[in-house]
Amino acid sequence: MIGQAATDAFFAKEVEHFPGRLGITHRDVPEMIARGYADVGLTQYHLISYWVRTFPNHFELVPIAGAERFPVKIAFGRVVRPLRPEAAKAFEEFFFSRARDVYPHYDFARMSDDEYGAPLALA
């Protein structure tokens, strides 16, 4: 959104010594910390909670006061013309039958009946 030149300048300054690429927080942030390229990293609560449970000797979850003002919406995207429509439909049915119960177990916020499965406005 800020353009290629501004993006290059930002990353050159902010992550000078990271030989990888940034963009996928559930992979890049823990890698930067594990390799010693960064001392800390910020990402969604449920991701850090997972890292702490999986690698308790390498990560610590430090909640940030006031962060609840910045919720993250999780969306399910449909393919317009799926290669295997029956499989796509079956996966969606499975996902929506299980996600409501499974997600909170892994520290995702619970959703109300109105939120769960509701269309997400992109504008």
Instruction: List the secondary-structure elements in sequence, H or E.
Output: HHHH
Q: How much helix is in the residues?
A: 40-55%
The domain tally reads 2
Major sheet characteristics: none
Please indicate the percent range of residues in DSSP E strands (runs of 2 or more).
under 5%
Write a structural description:
The chain has 123 residues and is mainly α. The protein folds into two domains: 4-69, no CATH class; 73-123, no CATH class. It contains four helices and no strands. The longest helix has 21 residues, at 85-105. The model has no long low-confidence stretch (mean pLDDT 83).
Entry summary:
The protein is mainly α and 123 residues long. It has 4 helices and no strands.
List keywords for this structure.
2 domains; 4 helices; globular; mainly alpha; 123 residues
Secondary-structure blueprint:
Layout: H1 4-14, H2 25-34, H3 45-54, H4 85-105
